[in-house]
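User: Please fill in residues for this 197-position structure.
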């Protein structure tokens, strides 16, 4: 009991988060401490806590250096693993600012949709943590973007197609950008032959 006569409740780490952290090369004790200190909020919060607090505190301990090397290797692998690609409809001849706004719509639209549905949640979490790799590519026209969109749907790869509201530069309903998310191979199966914008 504490001073308020409430019984102590032993902290229980989220088992799924704990396993994820350990699989990344983080020691079980550091993983548990990170989950405790972040209130079991998320894997990302725990990883941030580990790298910000625990590894720096013990950086002269050889076992920590080894764990750091494992984590760094994990970082390199994960950083290459997932990406989001954006295919811009170049036939619309949008200005630079318009393209930037439409790519932002495509990114946020797909991100929100995936967060709401829980689709590929672990992959999205890794992508969030490891730098959110993004690439912007040239699409030929509306038909081209729709063809890529349908191909992604057939392969069950998360995708999002932006139709403009028509307030500036282009007519309402114009298909401006396609966003596609997944691991490198999945995304490249859809957009791998396209040129950079």
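Assistant: Residues filled in for all 197 positions:
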């Amino acid at each position: 009991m504490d001073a308020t006569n409430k019984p102590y409740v032993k902290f229980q780490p989220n088992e799924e988060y704990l396993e994820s952290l350990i699989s990344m090369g983080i020691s079980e004790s550091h993983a548990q401490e990170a989950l405790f200190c972040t209130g079991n909020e998320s894997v990302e919060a725990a990883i941030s806590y580990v790298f910000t607090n625990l590894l720096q505190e013990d950086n002269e301990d050889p076992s920590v250096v080894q764990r750091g090397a494992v984590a760094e290797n994990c970082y390199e692998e994960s950083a290459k693993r997932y990406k989001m690609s954006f295919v811009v409809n170049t036939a619309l001849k949008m200005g630079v600012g318009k393209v930037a706004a439409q790519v932002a719509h495509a990114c946020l639209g797909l991100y929100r949709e995936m967060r709401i549905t829980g689709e590929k949640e672990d992959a999205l979490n890794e992508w969030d943590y490891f730098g959110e790799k993004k690439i912007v590519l040239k699409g030929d026209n509306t038909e081209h973007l729709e063809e890529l969109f349908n191909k992604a749907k057939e392969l069950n790869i998360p995708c999002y197609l932006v139709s403009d509201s028509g307030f500036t530069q282009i007519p309402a309903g114009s298909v401006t950008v396609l966003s596609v998310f997944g691991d490198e191979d999945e995304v490249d199966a859809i957009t791998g032959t396209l040129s950079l914008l």
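For context: The two ends are 63 Å apart (CA to CA).
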